[in-house]
């Protein structure tokens, strides 16, 4: 019997909230996995019943304080984010690391909450962090995040924006991030400057899903009835 229907006195409002959180929890796991982080399949594809067992309180509300996880980059992700060696840097370090994801318990996110999140990432050597919030960030909170981008890459997603994985929509083509070497090879092959490439905004929903940074190039693979599979490239700006 499903836990979602195991009792007669369940609050439908609490059930709806749990289902929304479950969907957002799955989407953010899929997002991390698609970026190249290592996650077990049962974590990514957690069922609603298992989610309720792990993350609900006796009163039927969600235990947001437990909704957090970290993930390490896979070998392929490390390779993609490691710059090519040069004479000056024969063994360059990778530009990616472990990510921390947290569903924020606070209704409003201001400077205090951002600083607490940043401190946690710093103390635990997380190279990146994702905050899933219940509401929009304050203007001052966004300024703090922008000021720390050089040290820790912090991203914020509202919970309601993660209820559906946009990359699963049939009209959204496959997007694949190129490594620096692949980007250089692409520009060399077509004798282009990167500014000559079509652009994708960093705030584009798929760009946000993949965590694209300015200057990165993404390969977009589409399927056509006449041309079959074909690729185009866009520069993140």
Automatic annotation (TrEMBL):
First-listed, main subcellular location of the protein, grouped into a coarse class: nucleus
Keyword Transcription recorded: yes
Subcellular location as annotated: Nucleus
InterPro entries associated with the record: Arch_Rpo5/euc_Rpb5, RNA_pol_Rpb5_N, RNA_pol_Rpb5_N_sf, RNA_pol_subH/Rpb5_C, RNA_pol_subH/Rpb5_CS, RPB5-like_sf
BP terms from Gene Ontology: termination of RNA polymerase I transcription; termination of RNA polymerase III transcription; transcription elongation by RNA polymerase I; transcription elongation by RNA polymerase II; transcription initiation at RNA polymerase I promoter; transcription initiation at RNA polymerase II promoter; transcription initiation at RNA polymerase III promoter; tRNA transcription by RNA polymerase III
Gene Ontology annotations for the cellular component aspect, listed alphabetically: RNA polymerase I complex; RNA polymerase II, core complex; RNA polymerase III complex
Domain RNA polymerase subunit H/Rpb5 C-terminal: 164-236
Domain RNA polymerase Rpb5 N-terminal per the UniProt entry, residue ranges: 16-120
Xref: Gene3D superfamilies: RNA polymerase, Rpb5, N-terminal domain (3.40.1340.10), RPB5-like RNA polymerase subunit (3.90.940.20)
Gene Ontology molecular functions: DNA binding; DNA-directed RNA polymerase activity; RNA-directed RNA polymerase activity
Keywords from the UniProt entry: Nucleus, Transcription
Origin: domain of life: Eukaryota
PROSITE patterns: RNA_POL_H_23KD
Pfam families with a match to the protein in the record: RNA_pol_Rpb5_C (PF01191), RNA_pol_Rpb5_N (PF03871)
HAMAP family in UniProt: RNApol_Rpo5_RPB5
Family per similarity comment: Belongs to the archaeal Rpo5/eukaryotic RPB5 RNA polymerase subunit family.
Descriptive protein name: DNA-directed RNA polymerases I, II, and III subunit RPABC1
Organism name: Grosmannia clavigera (strain kw1407 / UAMH 11150) (Blue stain fungus)
